[in-house]
Each structure stands twice: as structure tokens, then as C-alpha cells.
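Database export, one record per block. Field names are fixed; values are copied verbatim from the stored entry.
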Amino acid sequence: MKPIVLCYPKCGTCQKAEKWLKANSIEYTYRPIKEENPTIAELTEWLYKSGLPIAKFFNTSGLLYKEHNMKDKVKSLPTNELLEILAQNGLMVKRPILLSADKVLVGFKEEDWKALLQK
């Protein structure tokens, strides 16, 4: 399976991740996160495959996160409600998200991407 990368073109971290992928000749499928919001089912699967708490899936530096006072909600709302919020707007989701056959990485940490993609 070719890895899938969910990105937002104006996101600096996404740009850095794509530049790294191209520099390392790694083929991938690009998915625009704003136009193709992740579904609740996808997010649920990714949450499991990533091993991360749901709070790590939120774009904490985004305007939407701040406007909706998500800092407090992430700590108090049940997971199913948080998944609904993430599925409503792709810009609420931290990016880039790297999907491989068995693992999901959230955000771009070069050493993690290298370990997963350059086996």
C-alpha cells in the first residue's frame, strides 16, 4: 500500500513533510484534509492504529480550536463527541497525518516518518 498523507496546502508543517517525502523519493497519495474531512469511522481506526490519545488529533494552534474553546472541551467531552467535532471540519485535525497499512502518524517528526517509511 502506498502511504496516504492528509495535508492542508497552506500548512507549513505539511509543506515540510511533502518536501521530505519528495527528497527521499517516497511515493504517496495526497489527500486534502479540508476538502476530504476524515469520517468518524476513519478517525476511530486511526486513533486505534496510532496509539495516541484523542487530544493529539486536534490542531491546537488553529483558529477553530481557539474559537471553539477546545482546550477545555478536549479534557471533558467523551471520545465519541470529540470524534464528531474532528469529523465536521478537517482544519480542526492536526496535520499532516500519515497513513500506512498498519500505523498512523500524526504531525511531522522526521525520525518517526523515516523509521516507518524507510525500512
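Remark 1: The longest strand covers residues 4-7.
Remark 2: The helical segments are 12-23, 40-50, 63-67, 70-76, 79-88, 110-117.
End of record.
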